[in-house]
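Chain entry —
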Amino acid sequence: MQLNHNVTEFILLGLTQDPVRKKIVFVTFLIFYLGTLLGSLLIITTIKTSQALESPMYFFLFHLSLSDTCFSTSIAPRMIVDALLKNTTISFSECIIQIFSLHFFGCLEIFILILMAVDRYVAICKPLHYMTIMSLQVCGALVAVAWVGSCVHSSAQIILALSLPFCGPNVIDHYFCDLQPLLKLACADTYLVNLLLVSNSGAICMVSFVMLMFSYVIILYSLRNHSAEGRRKALSTCISHIIVVILFFGPCIFIYTRPASTFPMDKMIAVFYTIGTPLFNPLIYTLRNAEVKNSMRKLWSKKLISDDKR
């Protein structure tokens, strides 16, 4: 596809132009990003090294933590560095790569959350057939489909972005590249592209959110037949999943299911799902999960023992 544009780079305005606020942004988001990396990598390491966490639920949690790490890395490092710079520019090709990675890992996160809901549904509603339905081969195939589906979605975003001509203004009033801010800069009618964007990203967000909430309603309804202990454990897991779903999908639905008009609060809402959710996910999943906490303690005590032996 030929690139129909004269613009070779874009200027990112970031969250603020005020020098003092930029320093606050730098410190705050550096802490957030390091917290995300630490939390996600701790979960990834714990699941990979612990034999107690070999069930499908933790297989999906491993992939969720992996997508969290990559999703946050596609936005945060550049945003943190930009907060120190006076002029922040991003080349056209870098902008396209950022759109691809943002949508790829964001969509992957959505699909993994759906798989986690399916896993909880089978575990709670079909407990006797759980290991047959959610076998290692099935889980691997489902995750592979999630990765391929995410690639298809983000490729569609890139095709839409490359179809737009950019010949005039190159200032993006945001802290990262996304299709909505780019649509405002295109020197052509963007009605059709915007319609395709809403029907692609917007539909994925909305349909997935409705599916997830509906599945959790079914799961919670079926818990009435369980014992008090079983109900308490399943409820704890499901509530943590529901919190993650609402935190991630609320802002996404607000951003991607409306026409390409930008509001002043868009940037702050985007912070919530690009920086906030990847930070909250490890906290929510570890703080509400005794098995993960126990495995982390064992991993940590093993490390301390091996260090002492040295």
Remarks:
- The mean pLDDT is 83.
- Residues 300 and 306 are 10 Å apart (CA to CA).
